[in-house]
Amino acid sequence: MNKFRHIEEKFARVMMFLSTLIIVLTLCLIIFSILYRGLPSLNWAMLSQVPKGGFYFGKEGGILNAIIGSVYLAVGSTFLALIIGLPVALFMNTYLIKQVKLVNTIRFFLDLLWGVPSIVYGAFGFSIMIYLGMRTSLIAGIITVTLFIIPIMVRALDEVLKNVPQGLMEASLSLGSTRSELAYKVYLKQCIPGFITAILLSFGRAIGDAASVLFTTGYTDHIPTSLGQPAATLPLAIFFQLSSPIVEVQNRAYASALVLTVIILIISIVSRILTRHYKKNQIKF
C-alpha cells in the first residue's frame, strides 16, 4: 500500500513538473517569436507616427493610431465597468450577505457571462449598433468592451470583498454604521489593494481583446478626435497587418504585438507595486 502511494506521489510530482515546464516553454517561445520579429522593427518612428499609404499596403509609418485608440478604448470601458460593477459587488456583499442562494445565483450568471466568448459580445454590440443606427466608432467599441468586462470586474471585486473578515462588518454595524457607510467608508478602504488588481485585470482584458471590437470600432489610419469616429486598436492592428503580403507591414504587426505585451507587463508591475503600497493601510485581524 505504501509502495503504491509512493509511486502515485512520484507520478503526480512528475506530471506537475512537466505541466509547468510546458507552460514556461510555451510562454518563452511566444515572447521569443514576438521579440525576434518585432524588436528589429521597433523604433521611435514606429511609435510616433501613423501608418503612411494605408495600414495594409503602406510600408512606412507606425502604429501611433493603434496605441492611442487602444488606450482610449481600455480607459473608457474600464471606467464605465467600474462605475457599474463596484456598486453591484458592494450590494452583494453588504445588503445581500444573508441571502446566500440569491448571491450564489448572481455569481453563477456572472461566471456564465465571463465564459461567453468575446466574439459573441462583438456580435451583440453590432446588433445594438444596427438597431440604434450607429456607425462603427470609438463609443460603440467602448460600450461593447464594457459589456464584455463587467462580469470580470464584478466577480474580481466580489472575490476581494468575500475575503473581508466578518468581524469588520459586525464591528462597524455595532458602532452604528449604516450598510451604505459600511460599503463605501469601510470596505472601500479595506479592499483598495484588491480593487486595484481587479481594475487592472479588467483593463488588461479590455486592451488585449480583438474579437469584441472587430465589428464595432472599425479601423482607421488616423487618431480619433471624437467618440463618433472609428478607432484602431493594437489587437486589430496585429490581425489586419499580419495578413498583409508585404513583409514591412507584417513586421509592423509584430511590433504592435511587442508594444501590447509591454503594456500588459507594465500593468502587472504597477498592479503589484500599488497593491503592496496600499496593503499597509489594511486593518489586520
Largest sheet: none
Gyration radius over CA? 23 Å
Distance between the termini: 43 Å
Strand content: under 5%
User: Which secondary-structure class do the elements indicate?
Assistant: mainly alpha
Query: Count the strands?
Result: 0
Q: Which spans of ≥5 residues are poorly predicted at pLDDT below 50?
A: none
Average pLDDT figure? 86
Q: Percentage of helical residues? A: over 70%
Shape by Cα distribution = globular
The H-and-E topology, N to C, reads as: HHHHHHHHHHH
Oligomer: single chain
Number of helices: 11
Describe it:
By secondary structure, the chain is mostly helical. Helices cover 73% and strands 0% of the residues. It is built from eleven helices and no strands. The protein has helices spanning 2-38, 44-48, 64-94, 100-115, 118-132, 138-162, 166-174, 179-190, 192-208, 234-242, 247-278. Helix 3 packs parallel to helix 6 and helix 3 (64-94) packs across helix 8 (179-190). The longest helix is centred in the first third of the chain and has 37 residues, at 2-38. The mean pLDDT is 86.
Question: Which descriptors apply to this entry?
Answer:
mainly alpha; single chain; 11 helices; 73% helix; 285 residues
Describe the secondary structure blueprint for this structure:
Elements: H1 2-38, H2 44-48, H3 64-94, H4 100-115, H5 118-132, H6 138-162, H7 166-174, H8 179-190, H9 192-208, H10 234-242, H11 247-278
Helix pairs in contact: 1-11, 3-6, 3-8, 3-9, 3-10, 4-6, 5-6, 6-9, 9-11, 10-11
